């Protein structure tokens, strides 16, 4: 069972990451999906997508939940029926969830790819990062920034929120493995803590809304 990594963020918040290596048949064992999720899975043409979907149910089991504990709002944001906060992500053969009793949370896993250099101007003022030594470092940094903004978007869950105009990630060094960010939208400012890690050419970023922020 390839539970790849568990991170205790705080006494009330945990991250679970899965590396998907098993065939679909093995992943579907002991997983009972809600009608809504079964319909979603039935509509997935890609086997990789179905395997990722099932692996997320195994991550939930690690945290003590089954699929029936999960529901989605009109924006597509997942919620747990017991009132705890959850966020879900998958990228290629990695999936992840973050669950918190106390904080609104978001998580994102991204593969590090040079394609991000072409789209960077759409989501961040790229001149901020021009001091980096080489394109590999720039790709790594931009992937963290993108993952942070994706995580915040999942928390905020409001249409019209712009990665470029409304979400600001404060600059950071790779060694810090953390930074802070803010969203300024419709005159309201909210603050978030960001943490990140890198593994096997992937970047995982997770965000927690700061109390009172």
Descriptive labels:
magnesium ion binding; 30% helix; Ribosomal Protein L22, Chain A; 4-PPantetheinyl_Trfase_dom_sf; alpha+beta; transferase; 213 residues; 6 helices; five-stranded antiparallel β-sheet; four-stranded antiparallel β-sheet; 4-PPantetheinyl_Trfase_dom; 2 domains
Description:
The protein is of the alpha+beta class and 213 residues long. The chain has two domains: 3-102, 4'-phosphopantetheinyl transferase domain (Ribosomal Protein L22, Chain A, Alpha-Beta Complex); 108-209, no CATH class. It has six helices and eleven strands. Helix 4 crosses helix 5. The longest helix has 22 residues, at 135-156. The termini are far apart. It comes from Flagellimonas chongwuensis. GO terms for molecular function: holo-[acyl-carrier-protein] synthase activity; magnesium ion binding. Residues 105-197 form the 4'-phosphopantetheinyl transferase domain. It holds the Pfam family ACPS.
Q: What is the topological layout?
A:
Elements: E1 3-10, E2 13-19, H1 24-28, H2 35-42, H3 47-62, E3 70-72, E4 78-80, E5 85-91, E6 94-100, E7 105-111, H4 115-123, H5 135-156, H6 163-166, E8 167-169, E9 178-185, E10 188-199, E11 202-209
Helix pairs in contact: 4-5
Keywords: Transferase
Domain 4'-phosphopantetheinyl transferase: 105-197
InterPro entries: 4-PPantetheinyl_Trfase_dom (IPR008278), 4-PPantetheinyl_Trfase_dom_sf (IPR037143)
Task: Write a brief caption for the model.
By secondary structure, the protein is an alpha+beta fold.
**General form:** globular
- Main-sheet strand order equals 7-11-10-9-8
Query: DSSP helix count?
Result: 6
Main beta-sheet annotation: 5 strands, antiparallel
Radius of gyration: 17 Å
Element-level helix/strand string: EEHHHEEEEEHHHEEEE
How many individual β-strands? 11
Low-confidence stretches: none
Class by helix and strand content? Answer: alpha+beta
Beta-strand share of residues: 25-35%
The domain tally reads 2
Organism: Flagellimonas chongwuensis
Protein name: 4'-phosphopantetheinyl transferase superfamily protein
Domain 4'-phosphopantetheinyl transferase: 105-197
Pfam families: ACPS
